[in-house]
Design a protein that fits this description.
alpha/beta; TIM Barrel; eleven-stranded mixed sheet; three-stranded antiparallel sheet; 16 strands
């Protein structure tokens, strides 16, 4: 047996812990076992301890090539039995955030022809890919809850009926600013298995200065979204919310105001995700005390907090999978949802019969990319949680004067990697103790 190269061993509060990025597991260690692991002296560990370490992949068979094992997991993950469909029912929005990468298309809506083609597309998937067990529909935009009753709800109802008829499970994910939510929409969503990512811009004054509701500039968008979050959690007992906080240096100074706003929300149904506004990346301060204070405050209040894009999924981005597609309101088809939905980035067109006419050259280029295939990635201890820069970034690296180092997630960390691992443990303990 040997110790895993994906182990992190560290002190936390009064004890020793190990984290393994391959299994995404933590384990508490005695000081003697910690020392034995760090020195690779496994014969000093009693049998019960060895079994626990084996189970968490902290120790592995001597002959196992861990890098190849990670790559084989990648190939399996690309063949998952989930079909990931992103729908942009509109590229219009009720606010105009200065940092948004998308060009808003006023009054854009998915008409009945495109809606029918979407349903046919799903039916084709169920017929041609019988191994599909789950359909994950992500509602994106624009603001996907605009025209919900007229456009989105009838389409989702058709999709739900089709999934039930074919014996497939259906999960909805809404990426929304939360401003359109109301009791009626929440009631209409009750029959669906749904979760939400709701974005805010930090404390009230900051949020209101960025998200001004079109035609209602005197209304506080912050108060509105906080009220709607409470309504949503009360109205749909099974739903969960990922509260994404888009922040800059100034936002972190006032993060306590956000905590005060969500203090009474159930900790097991809402988690926090911190995301720096990408245009302010070059402004990351040398002193990271504000960031640490924000993380500590959320943890102290019992919230689970995520940061950056490290988690177990087996691939860098969903766009690497064949069984993933993003369809815009006008039938344009994309793979990447992290760039503007413009004609030059379009990778296909949805036909009325539900099939897609792909730009084969673009599609093959994307799907042929091995996102982890770089020395920097292969040697990285976080490879099993990252799998390298996404395919879109690799495409852009080939076109521009950029390197993999420029787009490596670890270079965006505002804390040390060891501190990041400790925060992951704190979030896990918060979840366990709820």
């Amino acid at each position: 047996m040997k110790t895993s190269k994906y182990n992190f061993i560290f002190k936390f509060e009064d004890g020793w812990y190990a984290y393994n990025s391959l299994s995404d597991r933590f384990i508490m260690l005695s000081s003697a076992v910690s020392e034995a692991l760090q020195k690779n002296e496994l014969s000093h560990i009693e049998q019960k301890g060895l079994e626990n370490l084996k189970e968490g992949k902290f120790i592995l068979p001597q002959a196992l090539d861990e890098t190849q094992y990670v790559i084989s997991n990648h190939e399996k993950a690309l063949r998952k039995t989930t079909y990931h469909l992103t729908l942009m029912p509109t590229l219009d929005c009720n606010v105009s955030c200065w940092y948004c990468f998308e060009k808003r298309v006023d009054h854009s809506r998915m008409n009945k022809v495109i809606q029918d083609a979407v349903v046919k597309h799903i039916e084709n998937v169920f017929q041609t890919k019988p191994e599909t067990e789950k359909l994950l529909v992500e509602l994106f935009g624009g603001e996907p809850l605009l025209h919900f009753e007229e456009d989105v709800f009838p389409l989702l109802t058709q999709i739900k009926n089709l999934a039930e008829k074919k014996g497939k499970s259906l999960l909805l994910l809404f990426a929304t600013n939360g401003l359109c939510l109301n009791e009626r929409i929440i009631h209409m969503l009750q029959p669906f298995q749904s979760s939400f990512q709701i974005s805010i811009d930090g404390y009230k004054r900051k949020h209101d200065s960025i998200k001004k509701i079109r035609g209602q500039k005197e209304v506080s968008s912050y108060d509105t979204v906080m009220k709607n979050i409470a309504l949503l959690l009360a109205g749909i007992s099974h739903t969960r919310i990922n509260l994404r906080i888009n922040y800059d240096n100034n936002t972190l100074k006032h993060i306590g105001e956000v905590v005060d706003s969500i203090r009474d929300l159930p900790r097991n149904r809402i988690q926090i995700h911190l995301e720096r506004v990408w245009q302010t990346q070059s402004d990351i301060p040398a002193d990271n005390s504000r960031f640490k204070e924000a993380m500590e405050l959320f943890h102290t209040q019992g919230f689970k907090v995520t940061y950056l894009n490290f988690f177990t999924r087996g691939y860098s981005c969903k766009a690497s999978r064949k069984d993933q597609v993003a369809i815009s309101y006008n039938g344009s088809v994309y793979k990447c949802t992290g760039r503007d939905f413009t004609s030059d980035l379009k990778e296909g067109v949805l036909r009325t019969d539900g099939t897609i006419r792909w730009d084969v050259e673009k599609l093959n280029q994307r799907l042929s990319i091995k996102t982890y295939d770089h020395e920097l990635c292969r040697e990285c201890k976080m490879l099993p949680q990252c799998y390298g820069p996404c395919s879109q970034k690799w495409i852009e690296i080939a076109r521009k004067d950029k390197t993999v180092t420029d787009v490596c997630q670890l270079n965006k960390l505002e804390i040390s990697l060891e501190e990041y691992i400790r925060y992951r443990l704190k979030s896990l303990l918060n979840r366990i103790h709820i």
